[in-house]
Amino acid sequence: MTPHGQPLPLRRRALGTTGLLVGPLCVGCAPLGDMPEAFAYSVAEEQALATYRAILDGPINFLDTAASYGNGESERRLGIVLRERGGIPDGFVVATKADRDLRTGDFSGDQIRRSVERSLRLLGLERLRLCYLHDPEETTFAAAMDPGGPVEALRRCKEEGLVAHIGVAGGPIDLMTRFVETGLFEVAISHNRYTLLNTAADPFWDMCRRQGVAAINAAPYSGGILAMGPDAYPRYAYRDAPSAMLERARRLESVCTRFDAPLGAAALQFSLRAPHIAATIVGMSTPDQLHQTIEWARRPLPDELWADLATVTPTTDDPDMVKEA
Ligand SMILES: NC(=O)c1ccc[n+]([C@@H]2O[C@H](COP(=O)([O-])OP(=O)(O)OC[C@H]3O[C@@H](n4cnc5c(N)ncnc54)[C@H](OP(=O)(O)O)[C@@H]3O)[C@@H](O)[C@H]2O)c1
């Protein structure tokens, strides 16, 4: 963990048992797949390509996408830029996720294999370095673990060399815990559950550590509200924010204002400071946000700020259970 108040380095470390060398920041590419239903705005292809180029040229060496982001659009756009570069730059790690069929809901083993094959095609790769089973809450644990089911299909992709390392990425903590406890996954992503607004994933990090699974925290801004501010972006975990959450975000923002600190910097460093989190995935949709992310990660923040932020108690309710505003 970086000591309080010290600028954060982007030093690369082995990602658990995968041995992949990655920094503590990972660029999340859901917005680059153009997902207005989740983020309430569109991202045009040229803007996405410019952002991907800036990412590959920048100091962050870890990128996170998924087959479902824009139903292949995030991967297709990334594939255009990877082909321009003649493949993934040395030392860069591209992770993606295998998904159900978004149209039919099919979460079978055959579908997961088709998803991996489509990712390889769209990205122009022969092998995925890291591929997660994505959003397993869209099926049941039993169905996911069935012989011939999605987990077995992903493991088979690994045995055949289409995927080097497998992980699991999803929401509900109880369910994610069951998958981690199978011992089949090297990496686990939890999202929207460890932020200044919500700390439901707190016990999950420790559980991953005990299991020897690398833990990754996605969406440190709760989907954007903690980067853009509650007035500019009154949404929480991809829905209109309930009034209690807006109130919490406003209180956090006013603490930051007192210390002349950007709310986004505090939200990002809250995740980067957590001892058991191997990497934090930050969504971004422009090259400027990439530069700002690095600035926010490095910005010195005083101990007193953390003490005052801690007076605004985060919820531990599951964000998927939060009622609409
Ligand atoms: N099931 C899963 O595995 C799962 C679930 C959720 C997320 N994830 C991963 O985690 C990533 C991050 O999650 P997220 O994108 O949903 O949420 P997030 O990281 O909490 O918030 C991202 C949003 O914050 C805004 N933002 C970022 N940097 C900013 C800056 N410097 N200034 C102003 N605004 C800024 C951007 O909004 P604008 O683009 O509107 O400016 C961006 O889309 C995803 O992209 C995905 O890769 C995985």
Short description:
With 325 residues, the protein is of the alpha/beta class.
Shape: globular
State the helical fraction.
25-40%
Average pLDDT over all residues: 94
Residue windows where pLDDT falls under 50 for at least 5 positions:
1-7
Strand order of the largest sheet: 3-4-5-6-7-8-9-12
Structural class based on helices, strands and sheet pairing: alpha/beta
Q: How many individual β-strands? A: 12
**What is the element string, with H for helices and E for strands?**
EEEHHEHEHEHHEHEHEHEEHHEHH
Put simply, the count of helices is 13
Rg: 19 Å
Give the cofactors and ligands: NADP nicotinamide-adenine-dinucleotide phosphate
Major sheet characteristics:
8 strands, parallel, barrel
Beta-strand fraction estimate: 15-25%
Span between termini: 36 Å
Provide structural commentary.
This protein is α/β, with parallel strands linked by helices and 325 residues long. Helix content is 39%, strand content 16%. The protein contains 13 helices and twelve strands. The protein has helices at 36-39, 45-57, 73-84, 109-123, 141-145, 150-159, 173-181, 202-211, 225-228, 243-258, 263-272, 287-298, 303-309, and strands at residues 13-14, 21-22, 25-28, 62-64, 93-98, 128-134, 163-170, 187-191, 214-218, 235-236, 239-240, 277-283. It is globular. The two termini are 36 Å apart. The structure holds NADP nicotinamide-adenine-dinucleotide phosphate (NAP). NADP nicotinamide-adenine-dinucleotide phosphate binds next to strand 7, strand 8, helix 9, strand 12 and helix 12.
